[in-house]
Amino acid sequence: MLIEQPPFLYRILFPGAHWRLQPSEKAVYLTFDDGPIPEMTPWVLDLLDAYRIKATFFCVGDNVRKYPEVYQQIIDRGHRTGNHTCHHLQGLQVSTEQYLRDVDEAAQLIRSRLFRPPHGHLRFPQFFALRKRFKIIMWDVVTRDYSRLVDARQVFDNVKRYTRPGSVIIFHDSLKADAKIREALPKSIEWLIEQGYTFKTIEE
Question: Which of 150, 179, 188, 201 could cysteine-pair with 154, CB 3.0–4.6 Å?
């Protein structure tokens, strides 16, 4: 549970970051990290279109540079995008200066005030510098679709177990998640609809 749904004590380390939105409303916020890539993102977009759902995509700047037509598909289909650094840097492993440069590089390609740090890890100076310029979006439920230690059934189970009104849910439009998300995402959407949830994008 420490991974799938971060505890309160972890959340308070980052004051002003957004982990859960509008808990009084029976809505969820589907988000997708690490794309866009041609192998996965178009499939996700087609699935969302089939259910008439809008989501928020936190994009790696280098992927946007390599696949601008896939990124444009996200925009054209009415979804939100956010900055996920340019090279998927983990903040704890690099200096604040290098991290902020990488975010700025991504910002040249991704015109958004939304930011999510890869892995959810940031040094405090990085966090406070970025908080002045971005709305920092963390998560309330991470499905762990990227992990070799879980299968598609467990990804779906994480959605069912941890989702609550206002949950920001993370899936990944990445190769690591490919086999699992193709099974778990449709099941998760169907279950959320059956439970009476609506789907919203994260506003800047």
Answer: 150
